[in-house]
Amino acid sequence: QGDVVEVSERTWVVAVARPPVTLPEHAPALLLHLTPGAEQADLLPRVVFLHGYSACVRALSAAGPTSCGEGLPTREGWGLAEAADDSERALALLLPQLAFLRRDGNAGRLSEPGEARRYFEPAFARGYLGAALREPPAGPWILVAHSGGFTAAAAIAARGDMDIDAIVLLDALYGAAPLFARWLGEHPNAQLVSLHRPTGEPA
After folding, report:
1. For residue 23, which of 48, 47, 58, 61 has the smallest C-alpha distance?
2. Which residues pair with residue 11 across a beta bridge?
3. For residues 66 and 112, is the Cβ–Cβ distance under 8 A?
4. Which residues contact 56 (CB under 8 A, 6 or more apart)?
5. What is the distance between the alpha carbons of residues 75 and 115, in angstroms, rounded to a whole number?
6. In the chain, at which residue ranges do the beta strands (DSSP E only) sit?
7. What percent of the chain has pLDDT over 90?
8. Which of 103, 141, 171, 183 could cross-link 203 (Cys pair, CB 3.0–4.6 Å)?
């Protein structure tokens, strides 16, 4: 489909009408990566990676020096797509672009009531249909926030209008601990995991 374009092996750009934040031209708003077996899975976790400061989703997905888009800067890749494949689990990895290459944790429209559900659920369904050529199976939603991505994770959790099954914080607890604790108390069947270096230094 025209709004779902494969840009590397098993990774697609999914066109969206209203990204959470204003982006430069040629910067993708959302990447979708399907690990091997995701097209045949009967139950498929959706893992949403909410990045921290100074990131672009193309570089987060790829390994090695990677262009953030046509005419845009190059950054060293994180290899998240490869890491997801190495898990040997069928899953969908969603990489939404938040603040583009800026030291800014603003969640943009994701902090508005109902926006996270309106953004992620149809975008994933459209992306999966375009990539796997079938309707997506059921599966849990998992938020993974790195560093400054805690702002978006906290906004989504605080609104409570998207069914989140687990939140994983990678050096991303900061001042939102009471909010995440309240979210966990209100969702006793959900999971909350916080990982950080023993020294407290950024991971």
Report:
1. 58
2. 8, 33
3. no
4. 27, 68, 69, 72, 73, 75, 97, 100, 101
5. 29
6. 4-8, 11-14, 30-34, 46-50, 63-67, 74-78, 92-96, 141-146, 166-170, 191-195
7. 89
8. 171
**187: Cβ–Cβ under 8 A, 6 or more apart, which residues?**
164
Tracing tokens 């997506």 back to the chain, one arrives at 136
Token couple for 117: 């559900």
Crossing angle of the two packed helices 150-159 and 115-132, in degrees rounded to 10? 110
Read off the pLDDT of residues 165-202 as tens digits, 9 standing for 90 and up: 999 999 998 889 999 999 999 999 999 999 987 765 55
Single pTM value for the model? 0.95
Q: Which two tokens stand for residue 116?
A: 């996270």
Output the six-digit token pair for 164.
């989140």
Both tokens assigned to 131: 């990539």
Task: Compute CA distances 164 → 29, 47, 125, 139, 161, whole Å.
Answer: 21, 10, 16, 11, 9
User: Would residue 44 be called left, alpha or beta, if left means φ above 0 and alpha means ψ between -120 and 50 degrees?
Assistant: beta
